[in-house]
Amino acid sequence: MGSLEVSGVSVVFGGHRALDGVGMTAEPGQVTGLIGPNGAGKSTLFDVVSGLRRPSSGRVVLDGRDVTRLGPARRARRGLARTFQRLELFGRLTVRDNLLVAAEMGPDRRLAGHAVTGILDRIGLHHLADTCADELSTGAARLVEVGRAMAVRPKLLLLDEPAAGQDGEETERFAALLRSLADDGTTVVLVEHDMGLVMSVCDRLHVLDLGKIIASGPPEEVRRDARVLAAYLGE
Ligand code: ADP
Ligand code: MG
């Protein structure tokens, strides 16, 4: 459970069409990549899916149910979690406490402490458990953000540039983490600029350019698509 189906979604800012009839899907057990140049509309699409922005037209369907009119809190209760491009940790709290705050909003509050230990294992940050969030490197902070999203045990996880600022080793560990989340049955949607990570970890890709989906399919196919090459090379 946790399938996502977006159809015909448009968002207009002033006169500017940030999203124009966007359709995309994401399946449980897969990492679905959402890529495209800066300003393409990726974060705006995440806002629409998570309920932070109402589209001017189109539908968002979670698990076969139309949630277009539901607010963000009700979508979260249906199993949706996301991270933001801008980091949103509690800077004065330790890594452990940042995770604990999230786990206490999850499905099994009594086991929150236990859940946090499990997440620290999976993100590989036991050694930083007692460090304040604002003392972390960007790469480590991104891992904590993902850990926080994991703490609510989401069915659908939206990650907005989670690897930005990570070093090579962190990115490698991160790729393994994404794979294991998908293997657990989570639907993972990844917005990411690191093409090495995208190509190695994604099962399917959707490419946004100027508010429109210009290609969808397996990574090997999409990377050879003429429209995708043009969008990235600016031809
Ligand atoms: P991406 O995440 O792919 O870089 P965004 O979704 O952030 O792209 O932005 C898509 C387009 O919408 C850009 O042209 C951006 O300037 C514009 N935009 C995003 N948010 C707003 C907003 N709150 N008000 C006006 N324009 C916005
Ligand atoms: Mg963005």
Automatic annotation (TrEMBL):
The keyword Nucleotide-binding applies. Residues 4-235 form the ABC transporter domain. InterPro entries: AAA+_ATPase (IPR003593), ABC_AA/LPS_Transport (IPR051120), ABC_transporter-like_ATP-bd (IPR003439), BCA_ABC_TP_C (IPR032823), P-loop_NTPase (IPR027417). One of its GO terms (molecular function) is ATP binding. Gene3D superfamilies: P-loop containing nucleotide triphosphate hydrolases. SMART domains: AAA. It comes from the Bacteria. The keyword Nucleotide-binding applies. PANTHER family: ABC TRANSPORTER ATP-BINDING PROTEIN, CONSERVED COMPONENT OF ABC TRANSPORTER FOR NATURAL AMINO ACIDS-RELATED. This is ABC transporter ATP-binding protein. It comes from Actinocorallia libanotica.
